[in-house]
């Protein structure tokens, strides 16, 4: 039963059984337990995602679970569900009222029992990871179990400030737990997940493009089951794939925006559209998205950026940003005289890739590690940085080390230019690098020199933790200019661009 | 032909009129007399005319005013199939634009004079007609204040400003450009005009403005800039070097001198971090809001 995808009826049956089981357990336990469970359930209730909690009972917001129920149990009518739920609520309410002591309990039960429709359903942001909260972990495990996606376990001791984030080991990718042939998850998605988790495909643009190409393949192989609509079923098919990919490596902001776009396009397919036509339209949409938002955007950004590069410039770049490399190569083709200083940092050493690409073009380069930054900065006339995402309050989220470079550049009065396409702009707001980040494999920090591997047995030392952060955020005061495909804007104007984009859509 | 028109408007006409307004008036006249057959040809002629105007007067305001004028009138050019009808619509819109910007100085004056309190000591730089209007409004409001004006070499424009202020019975004192740091502790606020407002929220103004801004920041005095909205320009300088040469020097120097490194620039760039507020006819803006307004104006 494991490898086969459960049919809809089987899934419904399983769900009903679980609910029944839970209800029996609840009746056995005393009312104080019920009280506690209800209160605990009502607190995370407003923050539950609207579509994915059919396993939760009465405290769940009525209209949210209605829509969830409607989407996943088309066999049962809405009226039957509502009646069932109301009966359950009444029985629990009466049994609780029989045992209540003071006014507080009735007060606490009333706002829960009365329509939760008044409470707006706050969608839990997918980036809101809470690994050290056991309730959130349980919810995640349940969701993955339902989607038949393997759960990846954390590895090693986590530094306490970052204990709310996942930390995985590269030696145990989630693809190990998938049977061959994979029937639940499309094989190209499995391949993509492996490429992400092993770091074969890295970099914001590369990941998004790979994701979109894989989705094209998935759409190609998709066939609508009978009695289903493509617009709704395909979106549901994609959800387990996305969960699987985020288990392999947390989704980036650019990937999130791309997925949002695809889901919107799919759900906008008119129902009378034939399958082949719909598939062709979706593939064309994906192609145009890649073309407009990534390829043409980088051309536009290069045009603006080249205006800012003058002869005799010494340009500092950090790590390997595909966009910045593209700009420098284009500027070199346009006969601008400049030289480049590439700053690199452990453990990824991405600067070597950038160095290789620039030297191949014939650009004069210098290579330093980030510890030599303040030594090299007096020579520099401009700093060009790439970005992983631009947040709504103007903060720049990029590879760890970027904010350090911006800070020191500001101290030396060197202008800092960030280059970023508009599809990487996200609505999230963050002022520090702790609340939402990514922890990479801590074993990467182990260094082998002269045959000796220091830190090899770091796990045996109880008080030692290895921290391998991937991203950090740079405040807008350190950034002088952001070059996007819409033009050159100051860092504080990111919300304006987001507003304009939303109006367009 | 266009050059003669500009000279007529500026030298012969009202010296109180901003150079950009005079330029736009001559552009409107040019539009009326234009003989081209197609919209594209018309636009090309207009762009050439603007370029010719920039050659006469290389200030930022003429460049920005010209571009905004062109955008304003060509917004609806695609709706009418008939060329003469189109031209009439464009001329109408052009006159509307001209009327709007002629009133802008008054609007700015009305907005800003409330920030001048009774008994205030104001420092200003060089000669700006907008600042004059603001001080005029404040004086008309029966406020007592003193003004310190920098001499503003090499053209001693500050002395002209002092004369105009004396005519309005405002107590004024002329200080050396080098005395800005000395006088800063005495003053309450600094008000300057602008030749151009750039995308980052910074301003381009007569040389010496940047110095004054740095001093006022060090002394924690508010630094206000007053500018009309047609001075908003789509430039984004990163530092002093990044300002294009065609704005730094006057038009005749650009044409005659070979080695610009020997010449002294007439303007400098003040970054937005040193500016407290900008007073424009679009309202009172913080430097970061300028980009928002520019996006609205140009998109």
TrEMBL record, chain A:
One BP term from GO: central nervous system development
Cytoplasm among keywords: yes
Region annotation (Disordered) ranges: 1-121
Localization of this protein: Cytoplasm, Cytosol
GO cellular component assignments: cytosol; eukaryotic translation initiation factor 2B complex
Low complexity composition-biased segments: 58-72
Ranges annotated as biased composition (Basic residues): 13-24
Compositional bias of kind Basic and acidic residues: 1-12, 25-41, 73-102
Keywords for the protein's UniProt record, in alphabetical order: Cytoplasm, Initiation factor, Protein biosynthesis
Matching InterPro entries: IF-2B-related, IF_2B-like_C, NagB/RpiA_transferase-like
One Pfam family linked to the record: IF-2B
Molecular-function GO term, any one: guanyl-nucleotide exchange factor activity
Entry's family note: Belongs to the eIF-2B alpha/beta/delta subunits family.
Assembly mode: Component of the translation initiation factor 2B (eIF2B) complex which is a heterodecamer of two sets of five different subunits: alpha, beta, gamma, delta and epsilon. Subunits alpha, beta and delta comprise a regulatory subcomplex and subunits epsilon and gamma comprise a catalytic subcomplex. Within the complex, the hexameric regulatory complex resides at the center, with the two heterodimeric catalytic subcomplexes bound on opposite sides.
Annotated function: Acts as a component of the translation initiation factor 2B (eIF2B) complex, which catalyzes the exchange of GDP for GTP on eukaryotic initiation factor 2 (eIF2) gamma subunit. Its guanine nucleotide exchange factor activity is repressed when bound to eIF2 complex phosphorylated on the alpha subunit, thereby limiting the amount of methionyl-initiator methionine tRNA available to the ribosome and consequently global translation is repressed.
The protein, known as: Translation initiation factor eIF2B subunit delta
Species the sequence originates in: Cyprinus carpio carpio
Automatic annotation (TrEMBL), chain B:
UniProt main location, coarse: cytoplasm
Record's keyword terms, sorted: Cytoplasm, Initiation factor, Protein biosynthesis
Top-rank taxon: Eukaryota
Cellular compartment(s): Cytoplasm, Cytosol
Keyword Lipid metabolism attached: no
Entry GO terms, CC: cytosol; eukaryotic translation initiation factor 2B complex
InterPro entries in UniProt: eIF2B_alpha/beta/delta, elF-2B_alpha_N, IF-2B-related, IF_2B-like_C, NagB/RpiA_transferase-like
Molecular function, one GO term: translation initiation factor activity
Pfam families recorded: IF-2B
Subunit details: Component of the translation initiation factor 2B (eIF2B) complex which is a heterodecamer of two sets of five different subunits: alpha, beta, gamma, delta and epsilon. Subunits alpha, beta and delta comprise a regulatory subcomplex and subunits epsilon and gamma comprise a catalytic subcomplex. Within the complex, the hexameric regulatory complex resides at the center, with the two heterodimeric catalytic subcomplexes bound on opposite sides.
Function, as annotated: Acts as a component of the translation initiation factor 2B (eIF2B) complex, which catalyzes the exchange of GDP for GTP on eukaryotic initiation factor 2 (eIF2) gamma subunit. Its guanine nucleotide exchange factor activity is repressed when bound to eIF2 complex phosphorylated on the alpha subunit, thereby limiting the amount of methionyl-initiator methionine tRNA available to the ribosome and consequently global translation is repressed.
Membership in a protein family: Belongs to the eIF-2B alpha/beta/delta subunits family.
PANTHER family: TRANSLATION INITIATION FACTOR EIF-2B SUBUNIT ALPHA (PTHR45860:SF1)
Protein name: Translation initiation factor eIF2B subunit alpha
Organism: Cyprinus carpio carpio
Highest classification ranks of the organism: Eukaryota, Metazoa, Chordata, Craniata, Vertebrata
